[in-house]
């Protein structure tokens, strides 16, 4: 039991060190020796947990996405209406990016790297909760019959744009909340059929 705990701690230390270093120096500018040193483990220990740097990068991405999905699941009510779930997901996606800025920055690096295409990952900031909601909105005749991938891509860009505006502005928490909710409304309106507005 103690061995498992130490093992988990070392793996978490490696992932945490990698996150900070990848953000600061990029994927190519961060050798595994530097990650091991920052994590306080031997270089060979890193390769005990991750066979290659590529595997470490993908594992870190998957870990962040998993945490993000859990975060969203805890913030939304499955019994709420489609529109309320959409707005809740949008709001909490932006809030997650603000609260977990290192993880968010990493997902953006990953999104624009070859790893993203190789993994065949679903769009960043669009875990399965979103996909099922879009499909439901189309089936319920609320959304225009657009491809789900296009809806996802447009939503991701709205989330990222809102985040970038917030971090560049000196706004109170209340004003930030107001802006996120306004953009969620505008994003919803972008996809809704005119007769349902």
From TrEMBL:
Top-rank taxon: Bacteria
GO MF annotation, one: DNA binding
Keywords, alphabetical: DNA-binding
SUPFAM superfamilies: Homeodomain-like
DNA-binding recorded as keyword: yes
UniProt-listed Pfam families: TetR_N (PF00440)
InterPro entries: Homeodomain-like_sf, HTH-type_TetR-like_transc_reg, HTH_TetR
UniProt domain HTH tetR-type: residue ranges: 8-68
DNA-binding region: 31-50
Entry protein name: TetR/AcrR family transcriptional regulator
